[in-house]
Design a protein that fits this description.
homodimer; 218 residues; mainly alpha; DNA-binding
DNA sequence: CCAACAGTGAGAATAGCGTTCTCCGCAGAT
DNA sequence: ATCTGCGGAGAACGCTATTCTCACTGTTGG
């Protein structure tokens, strides 16, 4: 044991100070990678970029990339997490204008649906696109990324339950998970699901489906 | 023009006969690839096999593979289509024991859910696993593969509508699409969605969700 | 000012995988 | 018996992710 534990505080502080600048630059570099990747994704409307592209775009080096990220999947995860988190905030803001719990839920579902569609020209063309891949390869991390949205929906559902507007036998959190999956994935595949002559599924339909189900209420 | 159009019938027949055997062998070879791939998928519980593995397993050659398939995606598509089609039949059979339209739907939803889960040890561990990837790269073909299931659900929903057990404002076909997406994708991600302490989502919950939605009926 | 040094860029090297190509033997038709 | 074309074996190619090498630069401690 080289008494590393009880180093005098002044020394720790000195080290920290000397490290601070390095850490700062490192964060900036990470951010440049993230920005570059986001830009490329937005441009191409797909997540099928190469690490090289990101490196060139960010004017950094491959080595740097792999020093900052464990691999491409970590970059994607970071972007995914960020996008979902920001979307959750956006949805929360939009829903705040509604006072009725059910109306809030409707806003949330509709907006989430719109945000999850592939490429309604730019803005946030992330989401369910590569989520499926990650879902298979890194389920745990995806769950973490989903957390903000689940939390938001759970919150809204709980409020609805307290206002007695929710079916009494349901647990908000579990419904939240199902709603999120449903909305995001239907949005993702709405393009593929439609017939040539059929319109794509709309946000309203999804809302109706989630809220009411399909069985006629007696 | 080398008068290929008005060849005498006998010659055509001769050609056909000579081709017949070749076609037969070709089909057998295709089947061997399919079987090998299915076996590998079943064993590994994933679709991340290499073309090489399939080739070796089927004791054929790479060249043969690419003569029969346009690429790996076509093999996957074929398996996917086959699995969905067989599942549709299986569901139809299981549902046939129910006489009430809604009960039939419940059986269908529950069974589809179980069939769509990743790896409930062997049987049919296909489905939504790689569907997402294909959904992005070959949406049209995926739609074709989905057709049998959509048709089945549409049929059941239509029967329910005729028995006045369906909300009157809904179009069976569109609901069928949403139900299918919902059930299959929730099943797929049920593993990832659960908390360590939370149970995974169950077939019953999914059915309740699809059938009833979450809003309390006045 | 100098010398060690940690961090970084440039880009060559490696490795896995899908896909293509080349060569060659063999079975069936003429 | 020869010709034709399918199909096997596997080398070769191209693209990516990932790792490795090396030289350079700015910082730090003396």
């Amino acid at each position: 044991m080289t008494s590393a534990n009880e180093e005098p505080a002044w020394k720790q502080r000195a080290v920290e100070r000397s490290i601070k600048t390095a850490k700062l630059r490192a964060e900036q570099r990470v951010q440049r990678f993230l920005d570059a990747a986001q830009a490329i994704i937005t441009e191409k409307g797909t997540t099928e970029f190469t690490v090289q592209e990101v490196v060139e775009r960010s004017k950094q080096s491959l080595r740097s990339f792999y020093l900052q990220f464990d691999g491409k999947h970590e970059l994607l995860l970071a972007l995914f997490e960020d996008a979902l988190s920001k979307s959750a905030e956006q949805i929360r803001a939009a829903a705040a204008t509604e006072s009725d719990p059910v109306a809030r839920l409707q806003v949330a579902v509709s907006l989430l649906f719109e945000l999850s569609r592939p490429d309604p020209n730019a803005k946030r063309p992330l989401f369910s696109d590569f989520a499926p891949q990650l879902l298979i390869t890194h389920p745990t991390e995806v769950r973490v990324a989903h957390a903000p949205l689940i939390a938001l929906l759970t919150e809204f559902l709980t409020e609805a339950a307290e206002a007695d507007e929710l079916r009494a036998d349901l647990q908000p959190r579990r419904v939240a998970a199902m709603v999120m999956q449903t909305v995001m994935f239907i949005a993702q595949s709405s393009v593929a699901t439609e017939d040539p002559d059929n319109h794509p599924i709309t946000a309203d339909e999804v809302w109706e489906f989630c809220a009411q189900g399909f069985v006629r209420q007696s």
